[in-house]
């Protein structure tokens, strides 16, 4: 068997070599054509033929018009909003008077702890008079953005007044409280910049961080060790830290928890790692510090060390809108590149004149700050032994934040408990307090709770009444 | 439709080129002479580096005095413009005590409610004394007053929808509502010339965004068909829902949107519609109800109607009007409703009073007279400008009319010369418009008398001759294709 194979192979090889070496009589252009040349030429021709063939690809068939029509008919969109269930009805209390410490809600008089009227300026005579003058002179709206004849002299006066009060070179006014921070952050932070922010910042800050497209790292709420670790990690990870802009974003008084940021610690870290700081002082402007100049005065820090300060004026100053202040470069830059300033109508003039009157009042009567501080201390002490609830805010914070001692485990059940407490307190004792409401777009991980906003114009009996009512209802609901 | 000829485009580009070269030379000198001075402390990256603010420092700064002019009076028909001076080439502008009385053709005051009004102001002052300046609280906590609920019902009735919700700022209305309605997995198809607030809202929502050619319903149809057929890119799943966003009057073009055709297409392809009537509510339509009334579209067909109170009602803030379910959903999730201080009560009262005047519920026919006046004045002004040879954009009945200027040198000259002759105009250039298409924008008000308009026309004509912006042939409106075909036109999208 094997020898037969060997014989056949040998004879085939003989024939092939015969064919190769067979002398032919052909001579082309002086080159004798041997047999092997023919075979080689044939091989080359076959190779060239294969190379010129196209490789096989499955044919691309775009959708025909009829097929697109069918797909469009088949497609069913989701409804624009989810199904509305029974518990989703809107039942906000309706005020029939000014939101001072005693307000008329749904027909009866209540003790109002739901307004951030920290200095008690709602209903102030001087402010009302200046507003009436402004309304008669300028009307209500400003009818245009700042660049198109919407800049009225009261705006410029208000900006200068605030800058002088705080001790900074200049400031810029915005027409809506929450739009201040979510316009300022994207104006300074662009793609590729680094931001380290507290995880408990409120929604407007989160929105600003998202719109800025920068790399954002969150540190544990008000935890300086966690902040330092994050700064270290972020600086180590980036290749050229001096060439990119880096910011720390914190609030002075967090409205989601009532905690106060330790500014001197943060400044030490900022200078060590070379970050700039953006501080949102919405709830501390006009509240903290000996003369109400905010967290910097409270901590004894010179104001120039904080790069950018923003604040909404809808709290202590009892008006609307917001401002941002800092160095000349910081403020000038926003006049052309801050979306909420350039593309939006400016603040109504009467609100700007109310802000000027409010700052004047604060400068002339610094004793209201002492009243406010005393009220906060009283309420803080009174509420320290409410059954089932614990005070989670700082003892200087005008937002007194109470959270459940033992959470039920589910956010919805917690919310239900807290809302029933607030409802009973309002119906039975006529005290208006509020629960923290979270939007589905809010990513804050802090627990929800009850909030009381303390005002300088609350009397001692008001505070005692609120505390007793809360203790009574909490004992009933949470037992 | 902008008709940009080659000649104009080349001269405009040349002007920008010269400005660019001079700007670069100045930057070079600054670097050489001040190399030791640095604004930022050691180790910190500058807030704005090199080329990022080149346009602001070297081009915009030359014309900085034309924008942001402060006024010392109400933004009414005649305003007191504060005079400013600068000692350092417009880097810092200082106020003086002197003012000039000018005719105001720039403020958004379509129905004349800007200054104190005989019906509105007493009521506003009364509400100020009752509810005070601000509630210092968010709507869901303790910031809802009777005025807010009254206004929401009134807005819903005015616009023709079942329910409405109001906010304190028009810009925030768009940028905060869109994320509450759409999210990842949805598609937004928006007009290419939509306002910055819509762009910001679309970006913040996390949904995919596609753009269709400005006011072109057939391109919208193409985009819709392609997107529905192909679904989400890379994943090939179908879109969860599609939202088409358009505006009633585009403020930089002055034109009305082609609402009936766009609505028909959206209905056919089951897309939801969002109509932003910032400039058209209260200003167009026989009874001031906006583009739906003007173009004969049933408001029930549009899913979400948005508008602002700044322009025609002389106040501040915005609203959304839609079905009861959508409004209830928004009241539970919209961050502006849950976190922002509620709208100031006197502003709310101003809108209520202004709407009562427009609807005729104040017992007079002032509203109807104002609406007729603004329509008549706009049409008169527009046709006169076109007769003089200016290139005016926009449709009839729209109170916004941009006049094309193109050249950067001419823009600042036009603005300053008009101010010298006591006329206050608004100029818009890059980046609010494309680089080559700078323009001046006129906004007509119902409070302008015929005499005011004629004075305005005289000044504009004189300054137009001086500056050289009468690009089109003079004469009555015979702008047929054959007249314009003589010019060599560049197609502008």
Which features would summarize this protein structure in a list?
heterodimer, A: 479 residues, alpha/beta, 7-stranded mixed beta sheet, 4-stranded antiparallel beta sheet, 16 helices, 17 strands, elongated, B: 493 residues, 3-stranded mixed beta sheet, 15% strand, globular, disordered C terminus
Mean of residue pLDDT of chain B? 88
Taking all Cα atoms into account, the compactness measure Rg of chain A is 37 Å
Q: Biggest interface pair, residues each? A: A-B, 111 and 117 residues
What's the pLDDT, averaged over the residues of chain A?
Answer: 88
From the N-terminal CA to the C-terminal CA of chain A, the straight-line distance is: 100 Å
Strand count, sense and closure of the main sheet of chain A? Answer: 7 strands, mixed
Q: Can you offer a commentary on this structure?
A:
- The complex is a heterodimer of chains A (479) and B (493).
- Helices cover 44% and strands 14% of the residues of chain A.
- Chain A is built from 16 helices and 17 strands.
- Chain A has helices at residues 2-21, 35-52, 65-74, 125-138, 153-166, 177-188, 203-212, 224-237, 263-273, 295-299, 328-337, 339-342, 349-364, 367-382, 411-429, 460-478; strands at 27-28, 31-32, 94-95, 102-105, 108-112, 170-174, 194-198, 215-219, 246-251, 276-280, 308-312, 322-326, 389-391, 399-404, 431-432, 434-435, 450-453.
- In chain A, the strands form 4 sheets. Chain A has a 7-stranded mixed beta sheet with strand order 6-12-11-10-9-7-8, sandwiched between helices.
- Chain B contains 16 helices and 16 strands.
- The termini of chain B are close together.
- Chain B is an alpha/beta fold and 493 residues long.
- In chain B, helix 3 packs antiparallel against helix 12, helix 4 (146-159) runs parallel beside helix 12 (345-359) and helix 12 (345-359) packs across helix 13 (366-388).
- Strand 3 (94-95) of chain A pairs parallel with strand 4 (144-145) of chain B.
